[in-house]
Amino acid sequence: MTRLNKSFPSLPSSFRDPSGFVFKSGQEFLRAVAFSYQEHYDQLLQSGLYRRLTEENLLVSHEEMDRGLFRDAPGIYKMIKPLQIPFISYPYEWSFSQLKDAALLTLKIQRLAAGCKMTLKDASAFNIQFFNGKPIFIDSLSFEVVKPGVPWKPYRQFCENFLAPLLLMAWKDVRINRMSRVYPSGIPLDLASRMLPRKTWLNRAILMHIHLHALGQKKLAAQGQQAAPRASMSSLALEALWDDLEGCIKPLKIKKQKSVWAHYYETSNYSSKAMEAKKTFVANRLKSLAPKTVIDLGANTGIFSRLASESGAMTVAIDDDDGCMEVIL
Amino acid sequence: MKKNLVALLGILIGLLTCKEAYAYIDPGSGSYLFQILIAGFLAAGFALKTFWGRVTNFFVSRFRKKDDTSK
């Protein structure tokens, strides 16, 4: 496909996936689907997977654009207008619970896809955004028709994008998530293995998916390249793999944070009377201004963000304190 | 649990004794093969878990029915 189609120049950030590209038309983000992706796109829609995922708000819905718009554009099979997400956030900005929810959503979508003879071709945390307070999958071109016996291609990416940072946050320090900014493709597993406490070697799932996996990457890479075309994995083993990853992530919790700010309202000089007065003031201002969007910078526990949200405004609560971020969600 | 760790210890020894490759290689292909190495182990555990779930469900539903009829 002509990536830099003159009529529809793709965004510079849309370069990875040859199945299509994203471009901006006016204020809207649109997506071109390549002819090379036709089989997979059709299966996504015809198998009922798209309907199921969008009905449950797990995947962004989209509408197909009129063919007349791109009749002369070479290589373009469809042009779609996905649901526009009003606020874009990135995994290294999320709280622990947000990353955990995103990981569980990825596994849930993978299992539903498997039921429709499809699979995810990648498991990047950047495929997820938060919309109406819940995670939603935004990459409609991440699905491909499954080939029987093929191992789960995104296994490595899932471990590096979700499992490793979640384990590091739970076992070491919740602030480690900011490290994902340095490693946008995911935290290398050998690094995660070195950073995790030694006692995690006694945890069966962590031993397998992080420590041995990191060793395996090092030692089996050469054999893997030769053996990959012949590699085969049963559907039971695949189901077992997703179940095991889910079982590893679900019980994860972060240690109680020593956060000063999360208890700010309890320990600050605000009397209950002053607090009520502030709430009334904010509620009244929200009523008179009727804003469409509210960004609460330094939202603390989100008391006032909730007031804004209840008033009908699209509200984004932002805080630097990880203890506060957990309370907000 | 102990059997699990022994099986994983076997995989660990296998991994430690095989040679590293010093070439331009994609660590993703190592992950690919590693997945197959652990597949049998995971499938066996999952099959056992599913079977055990069915057994307990069977008895739970039986006892529930009995309770309902006695009422």
> Helix-strand pattern of chain A, N to C?
EEHHEEHEEEEHHHHHHEHEH
Proportion of helical residues of chain B: over 70%
Class inferred from helices and paired strands of chain A: alpha+beta
Q: How many helical elements of chain B?
A: 2
Number of strands of chain B: 0
Q: Please provide the ordered H/E string of secondary-structure elements of chain B.
A: HH
Index terms:
heterodimer, A: about 325 residues, alpha+beta, 4-stranded antiparallel sheet, 11 helices, flat, B: 2 helices, about 85% helix
How would you characterize the overall build of this protein?
The complex is a heterodimer of chains A (329) and B (71). Chain A is an alpha+beta fold and 329 residues long. Chain A is built from 11 helices and 10 strands. In chain A, the strands form 4 sheets. A 4-stranded antiparallel beta sheet of chain A has the order 1-2-4-3, with no helix packed on it. In chain A, strands 5-8 form a two-stranded antiparallel ribbon. In chain A, a hairpin with a 2-residue loop joins strand 1 and strand 2. In chain A, helix 3 (96-114) packs antiparallel against helix 7 (235-249), helix 4 (155-171) packs parallel to helix 5 and helix 5 runs antiparallel to helix 6 (204-227). The longest helix of chain A is centred in the middle third of the chain and has 24 residues, at 204-227. The two termini of chain A are 42 Å apart. The model of chain A has no long low-confidence stretch (mean pLDDT 89). Chain B is rod-shaped and about 65 Å long. Chain B contains 2 helices and no strands. Chain B starts with a helix and ends with a helix. The model of chain B has no long low-confidence stretch (mean pLDDT 74). Chain B has 71 residues and is mainly alpha-helical.
